[in-house]
Amino acid sequence: MPAVLFYSPNDSPTEWERRLRDFIPDLDMRVWPDIGDPNDIEFALVWKLPPGNYEKLQNLRCICSLGQGVDHIFTEAKLPPQVHIMRLVDPWMAQAMSEWILLQVLRFHRQVPEYEDLERQFKWKVLPPPETSECAVGILGLGELGRDAARKISALGFKVAGWSRTEKEVEGVECFYGEKQLEAFLNRTKILCCLLPLTPKTTGIINSKTISQLPRGSYIVNAGRGQHVVDTCLLRALDTGHLAGAALDVFNEEPLPSQHPYWAHPKVSVWPHVSAQSNADSAAEQVADAIGKVFSGRVPNNLVSREQQY
Ligand code: NDP
Ligand code: OXD
Known about the structure:
- The protein is an alpha/beta fold.
- It has helices at about 15-20, 70-75, 90-110, 110-120, 145-155, 180-185, 210, 230-240, 260-265, 280-295; strands at about 5, 30, 40-45, 60-65, 85, 135-140, 160-165, 175, 190-195, 220, 245-250, 270.
- It has 2 domains: about 5-90 and about 280-295, Rossmann fold (3-Layer(aba) Sandwich); about 90-270, 3-Layer(aba) Sandwich (Rossmann fold).
- The protein has a 7-stranded parallel sheet with strand order 8-7-6-9-10-11-12. A 5-stranded parallel sheet has the order 2-1-3-4-5, covered by helices on one side.
- NADPH dihydro-nicotinamide-adenine-dinucleotide phosphate binds near residues 68, 146, 163, 168 and 199.
């Protein structure tokens, strides 16, 4: 049987091998860099494989991201042209992400930073109650994660809109699409949540221009990628009061350097890239299915487009 290459700085190879063997008992999994003969490898299950390694795998037929995002694969300069590129699409991760997005939306909507500030001052003060039906939440990205989050936020009574590349219909969600409709989407949004993939078209999408198109006093919630945000623009907008707060799970540099202004900023909540973590228990079956298909010359599910890079 051909071999599977495994590499991830975040995920346990032992755990993944154990769960994959539930479906493929005779699995031959090689953990990078101890991969033996590189010609044995036909399937790579990877998260941020160090650059320059795919081209050494002459018989590689599929690269599967150990997450829902594939930007770490497209940073590779020499991606073999004949290879399928795929990713996880895991309902467990969608549930985790929606919980995290809901947590941030409710935190800002229910004035948690303001009440925590009052508590620190031993002040008993009642703020005007927020009106859920008037609170406009906007989701950048209406894919596997964005749609799930949009539906769940809408079910709580918020005014929800989403923005995607192509036209969409999602029940209970006002749908905008394409560059031309971005400004209208931002103009109506008070809590902007980013669940976009990182591609050449979405890099730096949260910048001084797009932030200025949000109403004064808006919030940013980012669980897409750090590179979606131009940090200097976000910090300036927080300091001028145009933005009231930000909750960030992803950063231009991870781990976030200890001297970075986000850590100490009173309006920023910093999370260590944990909103939806990959999970061998929930995702091993779909990976095993993909391995089986690739080894028998068939096409796996959850392929991404090389042209769109997501
Ligand atoms: P999908 O590929 O399912 O969805 C992507 C969405 O973004 C689609 O709606 C797509 O539009 C839209 N989109 C892409 N490019 C553009 C563009 N140029 N303009 C407008 N819309 C665009 O991705 P997922 O929902 O599965 O995941 C999204 C991202 O979330 C991942 O790529 C990853 O970066 C991040 N993520 C973060 C995690 C964390 O722990 N922080 C965990 C998991 C994922 P269309 O529908 O028209 O194609
Ligand atoms: C992912 C992530 O893309 O965890 O799955 O960021």
